[in-house]
Amino acid sequence: MELWCACRPCQGFSRVIAGWGKLMSDFSDPNHRPLRVITFLAAHATEAFTLAEIARFLNLSKGSAHRVMTALTDAGFVSRHPRHKTFTLGMALVAVGQAALDRYPGVAIARREMARLNAELNVGFGATAIVNNEYLLLGREGTPRTYDGLALVGERRLVIPSIGIGQMAWRSPDEIDAYLDRGAAYLDPQIREHLLAAMPAIRRRGFSMAAEGVGLHQLIKATVIAPGQSDEEVLSAAAITGAGEISASEFQMLDWDEAQGRGVNYVAAPVFSPDGDVCLEIVMSDLPEGLGRSEMERYAAKLVQAADLVTSEIRGRKPKPW
Description:
Layout: H1 11-25, H2 33-43, E1 49-50, H3 51-57, H4 62-75, E2 78-80, E3 86-89, H5 92-103, H6 106-121, E4 124-131, E5 134-141, E6 156-158, H7 165-168, H8 173-181, H9 189-205, E7 208-211, H10 214-223, H11 231-242, H12 248-251, E8 264-272, E9 278-285, H13 293-313
Antiparallel strand pairs: 1-3, 2-3, 4-5, 4-9, 5-6, 7-8, 8-9
């Protein structure tokens, strides 16, 4: 996965993000503990945690947590409240975050468009990207009706069917097969064939979409990666959930008529890099209940226009569907 700046492809950023994800996956290495702490605090930016809470959430000993928090506090990356003795993100990270946004403006452009559409349509939006088999929330606009899925910037979700399907649809056939194989524990043959049929439909119409349903909400909730949790633990929980009653239209709709009487869970449109790869995705959720087909199509068209505008501003190239 690569993110791109408006002036030229920022190929180094993908390597930085890939390296970060690899570090985050190795919980046993003491050198990676500061990254885990910062990622945890970033995913809970409005909250404060005691040393004991951080140690518990990240499966650290109190001694290890104390050493890490002392080093991060001394560097300004973490701030410690003198009276409450709780920790939050530090001011030094403000400069780091602003520098990253300046260097890679695609995310900022997407957030601008999400804010514009949120004001116009009064629905929720999120900017997401797939990084090392994890579905990462980069930004959001609007207040979600539920907190079953990603709600806080920095939260991650395991990429298994149908999580991230709108981005996976533009990958190679081998990558699509590998993606569907990750759901082998809960996808029956009919659902797998349905998702295979959905891939060209997603490319042709330019967005993915799913119907509302209890099963989908449960699967979304099960795939959120909690601090200190391994991908294997998440996959096991998701497999149990996915084996329940989830209809084909909850995994992915082929036509708007499938939403009648149920509603739409989300519509997602991709943003493309100069190489024609999906670099991020804008997801629209919390659509009003009772929308007719023409209204749903209007909402989707506005979303695709916004994603295409971001692609254009970062000098991306939208490939032809196949």
